[in-house]
Write a sequence for this structure.
């Protein structure tokens, strides 16, 4: 019997293998969106599984919980090492926090993977009952605005010189890219619009093609 977080649709075996960090959060939705975008999608819970993927999504959820579980499962240092080595990675909502080099208001003991030279603020857009959807124009995504689902969402307070700002909402940065690392404050996996996932799959394909030369 298939795991409840396995991809629900068959995918092209020639596509890049992209993992979803499956410690906590909306894992199944990301696996489905990756499959729809042409990737081979896999849940990642252990260092051995991380070693087998070409790229990784760090999903939304609760950043403190994801941080603690990554340490508990022996994944934090392997995650940091792979990101340092250039593995493409995409963080959504809590995943954006996990990819930040610095959190403005961290919980006690909270750690991040790092990889993007940015400072983030947790729950910046409000609490659960203040969640909302908004159209967001994202540089590099064709076809008009994407529908951003903001759930206890963070925003980016500031970025370093190497970081490209891809989108803002209400005067705050909500999407960034630094090299092979992509992050959004919102949840693209909840809308049925797979363009953000397609952008990331293309980033992974480009990285894999460059390594094969």
């Amino acid at each position: 019997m298939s795991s409840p977080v396995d991809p629900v649709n068959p995918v092209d075996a020639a596509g890049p293998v992209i993992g979803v960090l499956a410690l906590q959060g909306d894992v199944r939705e990301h696996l489905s969106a990756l499959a729809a975008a042409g990737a081979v999608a896999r849940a990642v819970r252990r260092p051995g599984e991380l070693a087998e993927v070409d790229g990784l999504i760090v999903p939304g959820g609760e950043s403190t919980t994801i941080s603690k579980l990554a340490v508990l499962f022996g994944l934090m240092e392997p995650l940091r090492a792979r990101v340092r080595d250039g593995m493409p990675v995409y963080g959504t909502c809590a995943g954006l926090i996990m990819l930040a080099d610095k959190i403005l208001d961290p919980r006690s003991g909270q750690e991040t993977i790092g990889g993007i030279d940015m400072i983030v603020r947790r729950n910046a857009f409000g609490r659960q009952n203040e969640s909302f959807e908004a159209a967001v124009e994202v540089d590099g995504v064709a076809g008009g605005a994407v529908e951003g689902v903001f759930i206890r969402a963070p925003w980016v307070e500031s970025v370093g010189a190497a970081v490209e700002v891809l989108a803002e909402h209400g005067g705050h940065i909500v999407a960034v890219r630094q090299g092979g690392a992509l992050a959004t404050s919102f949840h693209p996996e909840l809308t049925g619009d797979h363009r953000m996932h397609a952008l990331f799959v293309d980033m992974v394909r480009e990285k894999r093609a460059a390594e094969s030369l």
